[in-house]
Amino acid sequence: MTGEPAGTPYWEPSELPPQPQLHGVVTADVAVVGAGLAGLSCAYHLAERAPGLDIAVLDAEQPAAGASGRGTGLLGPRAGPAVDRAVRRFGPRTARRMHRASERAVRDVLDLCARLDVPCGLRPGEQLMATRSAAGLIALARRARACRDIGLDVPVLTPAGIRDRVGVPYRAALLHRPAATLDPAALTCALARACADRGVRFYGRSPLLALRPGDLVGPELVLPHGRLYAGQAVLAVNSAAQALDLPVGTVLPVEVYALATEPLSASAYDELGGRAGHSVVDAVALAPYFRLLPDRGLVAGGGAATLPSGLGAPRLRVLRERAWAGLERWLRSLHPELARVRVSHRWSGRIGMTADDLPVVGPVPGHEDVWYIGGCCGHGLALSVAHGAYVAAALLGEPEEGEPLPWHRSRAPRLPVRGPVRPLLRAYVDTLGSLARHTC
């Protein structure tokens, strides 16, 4: 993978538990690799349900250093492809289950924030899937029809209904509830502290180099300065699965972009829906979206995506600058005051994408007692927390409530990501971003 994500996010990690580097030989009942929302949620729920369990969390850096601390903090229901595509691909019953599971995931995060009782900027509100373009209107009409046909409560908003919430001339919107916005780094760090309070050990600056079957029982995790032998392991490593050569199919590392502004005037903040905590996502794939911040600033994301693998540093810098510039142009078109506001932060992050838009949550093929979590395709804030709790229950042998997750599986579809096909894949992702920029 080329380099690391760029820029400094608006969010700053808060107080964290001690995280010594792992040296020598260490053992644990359960090893969790990845101190993002998925891994920490898994460790937290394990420690809650089995207080005597010896749990170790390892990370290549520290909690909130990866995607969980570099997101934009939109908490809304979405899992897998858009609902109309989900109906065509998987059938109405499964599409309904998928959406219901994503709604439960949002409620679970809201409940978790209440239990942790920490300031993470949580603002319950509504999420508008809106459009200003003809292409977006067509997409929204298909989704509205699909939601109605399978019995989902997703109201359609007219321009007047949108203006009551957000003062941007959108032509139509779908209203998603439950939804909220929050500080993703604060939630991640709060989870880390809650884990430590329950006896979970942390090891920072300890990247996983290899996974091997243990000599007696459980896996052996190979690290730069030591080894960890565990009875069970959870690899909440998202798109790093490719670098580790895990047999979980193709989870592509895709770089996405965000920026934040200085505080707006009180009137502009109110007009854009800041008091109510609304967020707005454009209906076109990869199109930009925005949310308001408690300090009256604005965060925007989307509009472009990059496959960083195989790109040299100079080319990647050019693509990043182009993505941020396009996102800023879109942002300034939303409201007259935004034409003058200063952009205070620009950053990028890495998400995991799969060919069928579905996450991968399941045992790793060929590795007994090892589970993998990843591939949320940009919808990981709610899903990651839900996946962590789901895997914790599976490791403890707890009976499932209802049906398994629709994406409980061990592999995503494979894609030819190396050799002469990689430029074609990159061109496809670039084209999606270009279409999004020209239709929103």
TrEMBL record:
The stretch of residues making up the signal peptide is: none
The EC number(s) this enzyme carries: 1.-.-.-
What protein name does the entry list?
A: NAD(P)/FAD-dependent oxidoreductase
Which GO terms of the molecular function aspect are on file?
A: oxidoreductase activity
Q: Does the keyword Oxidoreductase apply?
A: yes
Q: Which InterPro entries match?
A: FAD-dep_OxRdtase (IPR006076), FAD/NAD-bd_sf (IPR036188)
What Gene3D superfamilies does the annotation carry?
Answer: D-Amino Acid Oxidase, subunit A, domain 2, FAD/NAD(P)-binding domain
This protein's record includes keyword Hydrolase: no
Question: Per the database record, which ranges form the FAD dependent oxidoreductase domain?
Answer: 29-393
Q: Which UniProt keywords apply?
A: Oxidoreductase
The superkingdom of the source organism is Bacteria
